[in-house]
Amino acid sequence: VTEKLYYTDPLLLEFDATVVDAAADAGRCRLVLDRTCFYPGGGGQPADTGVLAGGRVVAMAEADGRIVHVVEPAPAGLAPGAAVHGAVDAARRLDYMEQHTGEHLFAQALKRAAGLQTVSVHFSDDDTAIELAVESVDERVLREAEEIANAAIRENRSVVTHEVGPAEASRFPLRRAPPDDERLRIVEVDSFDWVACCGVHVPSAGGVSLIKAAWQEKMRGHARVHLLIGRRALADYGRKIALSQELTRMLTCGEPDIPRRVRELLDGQKEAARELQRMQAAQAAVDAEAAVSGARAAAGAVFVSQVRHDAGPEYLKAFVERVTAAPGRVCVAIDQGAEGFQWIVAHSIDGGPDLPGLLRDALAAAEAKGGGRGARMQGMGGRADAAAGFARDVEARIERALTEGTL
Ligand SMILES: [Zn+2]
C-alpha cells in the first residue's frame, strides 16, 4: 500500500521515496513507490503532473492501494529499493485544491441560500462549474450564496477529513448521499459543510481566497453555474481591469461612461450608414439621368445599361428605379465585386416581356442566379468576368422580343 502524503499534508509537494516496483515499457516506466505526494485523480480532480526520478509524470493509476506513476522518458536503472525524488507541478495542484475546496463551499452555500442540490461538478484547467437540479438559478440566490461562501472563507474555517465506515458516516449531515463504499472519506469544512470526497483540499477555507459566480447556462434541463475561484478569480479581475483601462483610453471617458459612449458610437455609425445610403441613392439618380440621355433607342424602347464596381445594393436599386420611373425603358444594372456581380434587370414598357421566361438561358450562360417576375428580376453572378457579356446578352434578348412581338 502506497502512503498517501497528499492526504496527510496537501501542501507538501516535494518528497523522497523508495521504489517498490518498476516496469519499463515502450520508453515509459510504471513506478510504484512506498509513498507519494502525487494525487492519482478522482472526485472530478485530475491526476497531478510533475517530475519524478528525472522524468515527467504523464499519467497515474490506483489499484488495490498501490499508486502507479507513469513516467516518461523511463529513468535508467531503477529497481526496487532505489531512492527517488519527486516534485509535483505546484501551481497546477494548488489551483485544483482551491477549485475543489471552493466548489464544496459554494455547493453548501447554494443549499443554505435556496435549498439547491448539486448534481455534478466539472473541473478543467480553465473552468469550474457545478450543475444543479433546477433549470436556472435566480441572480439574487447566486449573490446570497456568494455572501455565504465568502463569509466561510473570511472565517478561515479549517478543512478536516474523517475516515469512517458507513454507519459512522450517518452521524454527519452529509450534503450529498455518499458512495456505497466500506470506508468513506468525509471532508468537513468546520461546522459548515460535510461531504464524501476523495479530492485534495486546502487546509482551511482562507486558502480559497475568493469565490464569484460568473455566469450560468442551461444544459440538459439543469442550470450549470460557472465559478471563478481563488487565483483564477484574481487573474480574471486583472483581465477585467486591463480591459476597462483600455476602453477608457480608447473612448476617452471614465469607466462608468463606457456603455453610454459605446451606445453613442453605435448610433453614430448607424446614422453614417443611413447617410451613405442617401448619398448613394442621390448619386444613382444623377448617373441614371446621364445614362438615359446618352442611351440607345431601339425597337421602340430606350435601352440603359450600367456596369459599376462596388457601388453597393442601394446604388443599384436607386439607379434602376430612376431609369424605369418613366415609361418605355429597359434597364440592365450590374455591380461588380471581387467575388462576382449583383444584377437587376427591369423595364417600364406597357405590355412588355415577362423577364423570367425570356432570360432563363441568359442566366444559365453567365452562370448567374436570381429571381423575380414580370418586369423585374434581380440576382447574382458567380463569375465577375461574365458581367459585361451578361448585360449585352440580356439587352439583345429583350430587343429581339420587342422587335418580333413575341411577348
Ligand atoms: Zn472535494
Task: Give a topology summary.
Layout: E1 3-4, H1 5-8, E2 14-25, E3 28-33, E4 35-36, E5 50-52, E6 55-63, E7 66-72, E8 83-88, H2 90-114, E9 118-124, E10 127-132, H3 139-154, E11 159-164, H4 166-169, E12 184-189, E13 193-196, E14 211-219, E15 222-229, H5 231-251, H6 258-293, E16 296-298, E17 301-309, H7 313-323, E18 329-336, E19 341-347, H8 355-358, H9 360-365, E20 368-373, E21 376-381, H10 387-404
Parallel strand pairs: 1-4, 17-18
Antiparallel strand pairs: 2-3, 2-8, 3-7, 5-6, 5-8, 6-7, 9-10, 10-15, 11-12, 12-13, 14-15, 16-17, 18-19, 19-21, 20-21
Bound molecules: zinc ion.
Zinc ion (ZN) binds at residues 43, 100, 104, 187, 197, 199, 201.
Shape field: elongated
The main pleated sheet reads as: 6 strands, antiparallel, barrel
Name the poorly predicted regions. Answer: none
Helix content: 25-40%
Note the beta-strand portion.
25-35%
Biggest sheet, strands in spatial order?
Answer: 2-3-7-6-5-8
- Rounded to the nearest angstrom, the distance between the terminal CA atoms is 96 Å
What small molecules accompany the polymer chains?
zinc ion
Number of helices: 10
> What structural class do the secondary elements suggest?
alpha+beta
Q: Radius of gyration over alpha carbons?
A: 37 Å
Total number of strands: 21
Mean pLDDT: 95
Can you give a write-up of this model?
By secondary structure, this protein is of the alpha+beta class. The strands form five sheets. The protein has a six-stranded antiparallel beta barrel with strand order 2-3-7-6-5-8. The longest helix has 36 residues. The chain binds zinc ion. Zinc ion (ZN) binds next to helix 2.
